[in-house]
Amino acid sequence: MKSSAEIKTTILETAGRLFYSQGYNSTGINQVIDEAGIARASLYNHFKSKSDLLYAYLEELDEKWFDQLHVQIDKIKDPKEKIIGLFEFRLKRQANSQYAGCPFIKVSAEVPADDSKAFELINKNKMKFKQLIEQLVQDIPAHAQLSTAELADTLYMLIEGATVTAAFQKNKSMMTAAKSIAAKLLG
Amino acid sequence: MKSSAEIKTTILETAGRLFYSQGYNSTGINQVIDEAGIARASLYNHFKSKSDLLYAYLEELDEKWFDQLHVQIDKIKDPKEKIIGLFEFRLKRQANSQYAGCPFIKVSAEVPADDSKAFELINKNKMKFKQLIEQLVQDIPAHAQLSTAELADTLYMLIEGATVTAAFQKNKSMMTAAKSIAAKLLG
DNA sequence: TTTAAGATAGACAAGTCTGTCTATCTATTT
DNA sequence: AAATAGATAGACAGACTTGTCTATCTTAAA
């Protein structure tokens, strides 16, 4: 028998993998139980509903996501290169997932309009990412046409726009275009 | 009794409204039948499966979408203002749908990864939109940092990035920011 | 006027969904 | 050693899913 903590981890890993690759609505509790190899009651002991499992997934993903991002960019010193590293991080994630798209955006498109908790968690992740961009842009010298805040907004939207596009084009072309545009905007 | 053509129109209207507001996976054939007020066999007479109904919805939406866009921007003469009109078109659509997001992106996030037909239809719509931007940018005089193609890409990603963000923020702030950035980039 | 297409209502199959419940077993804590 | 927490398997309810089928009715064309 596995321990309580191990079970919770296994459930979250399995559910996260399935939610991302198949979609939240297309993934049934039964499949999570089967693939996690745990008992039905164990899942409902740790999570009171499927929605609760979704929220836990989003929270856990937020942590993991930034952890992995920092592993990639913390070693970079040059501020401009650090920002370019954000694009490379997304490029890497896309290739690894075979262009499954951003997991947060996917959930955003799937949950009903009144699931404010889901939208809050998604917004929290995205605004944290935007704030990181804003911080990094502070260290960049004056820009021709755009204010610092506008440059940060532009970089954020380049990344998000390229990510959704990659999700249906199933290739990296838009993100590499975004990256080279960013390099030019950063001067 | 309604005519065959009327029925098909009613089905598409009803399915489209429900697919967009509730999501494709969360909308059952039974609900479409009930709300359209038609017989079950009539639906399966016009569309051989739920997937087929989705494809017809995407094709019809593509037409309607560009029709509405052209109603808004064809009267504008100034090339820069025409491009700003694209942002205003999206702003209007978002407000009208209470920030339900882009219907194409929503489907892109919901369908299984092997539904290449859906991804093709979505890509067709988005690339047509991007090509329109590219045409409009041709008429804009030289830009400081970016090439014509890069400016078009940037505008496209600003709009798409702002749209997905609006879908979870449920407000227009990101799209208005994108619009004023676009105005600056256009000089 | 006969024929044929396509509308109608509704039963049905075979499966899925979420969440609850019982009953039993095991491991840890008191 | 007894008690408790939490694991297990699996039945179950009740609703929902897509797609097919029968049987009847209405309209339009031949």
Q: Can you offer a commentary on this structure?
A:
- Chains A, B: Residues 5-65 form the HTH tetR-type domain.
- Chains A, B: It comes from Chitinophaga skermanii.
- Chains A, B: This is TetR family transcriptional regulator.
- Chains A, B: Keywords: DNA-binding, Transcription, Transcription regulation.
- Chains A, B: InterPro entries: Homeodomain-like_sf, HTH_TetR, Tet_transcr_reg_TetR-rel_C_sf.
- The structure is a homodimer of 187-residue chains.
- Chain A is mainly alpha-helical and 187 residues long.
- Chain A folds into two domains: 1-47, Orthogonal Bundle (Arc Repressor Mutant, subunit A); 51-185, Tetracycline Repressor, domain 2 (Orthogonal Bundle), CATH 1.10.357.
- In chain A, 76% of the residues lie in helices and 0% in strands.
- Chain A has nine helices and no strands.
- The first copy, chain A, has helices at 4-22, 29-36, 40-46, 50-73, 79-96, 103-110, 116-138, 148-169, 173-185.
- In chain A, helix 1 packs across helix 4, helix 4 packs parallel to helix 7 (116-138) and helix 7 (116-138) crosses helix 8 (148-169).
- The structure holds a DNA duplex (30 and 30 nucleotides).
